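Changelog entry

Holo records now carry the ligand SMILES as an explicit input line rather than a separate metadata file. Below, a converted record for magnesium ion, shown in the new format.
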Amino acid sequence: MLLQTINHPTTVKEFNLEQKIQLANEIRTFLIEEVSKTGGHLGPNLGVVELTIALHSVFNSPEDKMIWDVGHQSYVHKILTGRWKQFSTLRCYKGLSGFPKCKESEHDVFETGHSSTSISAALGMAYAAKLNNESNHSIAIIGDGAMTGGIALEALNHAGQSDVNLIVILNDNEMSIAQNVGALSNYLTRMRTDPNYSRVKDDIEFILKKIPAIGSKMLKTAERIKDSLKYLFVSGMLFEELGFTYLGPIDGHNLEDLESTLQQAKRKKGPLLVHVITKKGKGYPPAEKNPDLFHGIGKFDIETGQSIKKQAPPSYTKVFGDTIVAIAADEQKIACITAAMPTGTGLTDFSKKYPERFFDVGIAEQHAVTLAAGLAKGGFIPVFAVYSTFLQRGYDQVLHDVCLQNIPVIFAVDRAGLVGQDGETHHGVFDLAYLRHIPNITIMMPKDENELRHMLYTAVQLKGPVVVRYPRLNGNGVDMSEELACLPIGRMEYINRGQDLSIIALGPMLSIAQDVASRLETRDFTVNILNARFVKPLDEETLDALANLGAPIIIIEEHVLQGGLGSAILEYYEQAGRRNLKIKRYGIPDKFIEHGDRLELLSQIGLTAEQITEEISQFLPLKTQHV
Ligand SMILES: Cc1ncc(C[n+]2csc(CCOP(=O)(O)OP(=O)(O)O)c2C)c(N)n1
Ligand SMILES: CC(=O)[C@@H](O)[C@H](O)COP(=O)(O)O
Ligand SMILES: [Mg+2]
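Structure line, unchanged by the conversion:
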């Protein structure tokens, strides 16, 4: 196997074309086999096998800087930079990350995970190289989906006026996670398939073939005419007008074309864009047929392409999707928005039932928030469904365009908490800290999937900025048949009454709180257990009652400690002049949490019932002999 001889990117430079074609086949087989066992972003990586081989054939990593936008398609890059042996640990705790990680390899020169950052980073590196009088290249590999992200367009605008050695490889597979959307995507499609371009090209070739015995010189001239005609009719005029040299579109699975074009790009000065046409999932029919599903997939059966999933209660995402469809049946003003993630956020059904009230804005979270504000101003009740981590992109819009004007926008914040295998860039553990200090906002998190239904219904009635946040988890399998009802705003819920300790738990941490309480009850302690439910406004009446009880109070949340629910409660007690309270907060410490199984990660940061019980036992007065 050629693949197993690769411990450094220079190895691939020594292969001839036939060997590179063999290597591409080996890599595809390897990816399918490995990702079927670990899960991961198979489709995107199958689409960039030849592109990555060509890049490492023409350029010299790490001197030439390769920045992989989003980074979910960097598995082939990792294979070619000597990490193929680690693929059995892909996305496992302490194993290979599914995204570029500088600590993993010198060839991972910039960490990504959130979309559309590669051109900005590459441009910065290109300017640094110029100022350092270095001649290396900075190369951003960005997908057609990521190119719809505002920061990418900001970077194109800035780069276009520069004279630095920046190469942008536009990996165009017509897909974001779902089908790509927007005017830019339509423009790219025209460039791929423009009848003018292909007609003019055919006409020229037809004429040339008519003229007998054309010398190679004439043919080269004719080729140049054909290429210059392309710029007249089709071209990448958009990119050319922005100051880029545009090369393409070229077949992203043809190694010869790729290498010759990249050699041409390497020789040129100034900002340059190579438009590469690829197929997402290339070489594995189930992934080619279903690129959305195989964008990011769990373990699957290679023969059938079927996911290997255990039977489980519906996910919070599914319950959100079903509930918003049910509410929208009666409430005609509900409109739903996604930033290129209809499937991931559970909005597929809504988009089919109410297409006129559904908006996929591309990877454009900032725009999505202010679009929602505009829709609300027009009398609609917009619901922006977005992962916690990606809403970070729209912070100013939430504050400035929604809350300041107190506009009724609902934020369905999915993946709130540790997400597991995607790691640091995707854990949704910061949103309380960046949202709860904004005036006019309401923030709630359900204890289970049934309470999520009621929270969504409550949010629609609230007529203000509301965040309903929920985890990347399956529900608890609770009954969901009861009528939708409004929850009392700002009120916690007593799950259990006790005297010796009070535990306030947020979302899925309630099950941990109940486990802690049952462990302590074996030691004759009785425990108040509260489902926090609201992070803002706080339930001040209940907090006062807990303080008056005089028992220790612990708060458990799957969110950074700094700025989370526990912080809010401490702030309240300080403002209320409550002194000498015994309070202990449990949550995410002040560090980035790496990738791995969620339960493993919780254990690593002391967020298990056993660890919490042990620690708070020291807090509690001695009661019985065997404590
Ligand atoms: C800011 C942000 N929003 C959303 C996502 C989720 N996401 C990951 S990959 C992707 C689609 C990327 O499409 P494209 O750039 O075309 O790459 P492809 O998967 O087609 O290779 C999206 C929306 C993200 N990573 N970052
Ligand atoms: C690469 C990326 O950002 C998305 O594909 C993300 O990995 C999806 O996460 P979920 O698997 O939680 O939908
Ligand atoms: Mg794409």
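Spot-checked after migration. DSSP finds 25 helices and 17 strands in the chain. The first helix runs from residue 10 to 13.
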